[in-house]
Amino acid sequence: MACGRGRGDSKRQVILFILCVCVCQSRAETLRYSLPEEMERDSFVANIAKDLGVPLSQLAARKARVVSEGNEQLFRLDQSTGVLTAKESLDREEICPQSDTCT
């Protein structure tokens, strides 16, 4: 009976170890930028590759992308250059009408 229980515990430990390794290797980076109001279409925001400290070849390999909370994508990331630009003219009153600050 003790042997059967030990095998199950070992199997569980191995699965837990593998899960921990996978989670640690797939960490995500979050970058935040402050932008001026009335930012024009195609305006430069940042160089993501430079800010993350990763080679340009890694952006596509790591499937870098911009995630928005709403259903409208406001920014564009060029994976070949690492440059993040405003997809459209950004108007704070239009994006966040009920707030003095917009996140």
From TrEMBL:
Organism (species): Oxylabes madagascariensis (white-throated Oxylabes)
MF (Gene Ontology): calcium ion binding
SUPFAM superfamilies noted in UniProt: Cadherin-like
Protein's name in the database: PCDB1 protein
Gene Ontology, cellular component aspect: membrane
Gene assigned in the entry: Pcdhb1_1
Source taxonomy: Eukaryota, Metazoa, Chordata, Craniata, Vertebrata
Cellular compartment(s): Membrane
Signal sequence annotation: 1-28
Main localization of the protein described in the UniProt heading: membrane
